Amino acid sequence: NGTGLGLGIARRLVDRMGGTLVCTSAVGQGSTFSFELETSVAANTPLPEERPEKPSVRKDMSSRVMQILIVEDNDINRELLEKMLATAGHEVTAASNATTGIAAADHRAFDLILMDISMPDINGMKATEAIRTSGGPSHRTPVYAVTAHALPEERARFRAAGMDGCLIKPVRRSNLLEVLESVPATTDLVVVRPDHVLLDLEQFRNLESVLTADRMVTMLSIFAEEVVSLMARLDGSVTASNLRSLQKNVHQISGSAAIFGAVHLHKSLGRIETACKNDDPATVNRLALNLEEVWPATFALISETVDLPPPKSLTMK
Predict the structure, then answer these.
(1) Considering the entire predicted model, what is its pTM?
(2) Does this UniProt record's set of keywords contain Oxidoreductase (predicted)?
(3) Which CATH architecture does the domain made up of 67-182 adopt?
(4) Distance CA 125, CA 40 (A)
């Protein structure tokens, strides 16, 4: 079930460009979606062989010495990152798990933190949130996710957790250079807490530019009904017996929230999903109380942007 936003948007974009979206599917194996487009070469665009060569990656990997914290549980990945940075003259501190990484960030100020996403003790997003809210010497340091998976909705979750960017595994020196060059000379940055942003208007406007007005209203109405239905399930009586089905429900709606740019709602649902994964119904019930404030405020802001009727079961207080 769900809103089916991804395929709907993809089909509309492909249709606009004169192509056709094709699906092949096999039971028990999965589905593949593909498309073909015929395009012409822009008049003023040089052919690939005529393009000027890109400047080679500088060997120094940033002209200044940086203090860098690596938080990575995989020994090989951690060692490779250490060597790439250390041989370029940077001072590296390495942590093999999130707990150690959080402690290191609380102990001293770093210029950059490279944070693995999937770790056994605490995932990279939760570790970043802990660093951001600690008030410690590195709470404003740029944090980059290091992961093999970075779909748009995942990148949105990284941003909502307070991360500044993403490096895809296996990490290439050229990509690492781009990150190092983007880091400011000082970590005294003004950090806007993403969890307090109700609606990412840029993301919301992007959807509006792709969907028709009627389709946008339909999708948002379905989304609103799903949120309200979920809140009815999160009535303070969640027990361990229904955590698994609840987790799937929360995960699906959290993804929709990210697509619509409902940052605070997405973040709140992410915390509830984590509590479900941790078999912690007490925390689920406690976190659910936050939705009673976040959702009405989010819906009100969306309604100011789109003429949206309230869901049947929504009671605005």
Answers:
(1) 0.43
(2) no
(3) 3-Layer(aba) Sandwich (3.40)
(4) 42
pLDDT digits (tens, 9 = 90+) for 96-140: 999 999 999 988 889 999 999 999 889 999 999 999 988 788 998
Non-local CB neighbours of 83 within 8 Å, separated by 6+ positions = none
Structure tokens, 300: 């009100």
> What is residue 123's three-state secondary structure?
coil
112: burial class by Cβ within 10 Å (0-12, 13-18, 19+)?
Answer: buried
pLDDT for 6-58, tens place per residue? Answer: 777 788 888 888 888 888 888 878 888 888 887 776 656 555 554 444 444 34
DSSP, residue by residue, 155-180: HHHHHHTT--EEEESSPPHHHHHHHH
- Show the CA angle centred on residue 41, arms to residues 37 and 47, nearest 5°: 125
Question: Closest by alpha carbon to 111, among 73, 80, 65, 160?
Answer: 65
Strands 20-26 and 30-36: antiparallel
Give 310's Cβ-side CA count (13 Å radius).
11
Rounded Cα distance between 124 and 116, Å, is: 6
H or E element in which residue 103 lies: helix 98-107
Residue ranges of the domains in the chain?
Answer: 67-182, 201-314
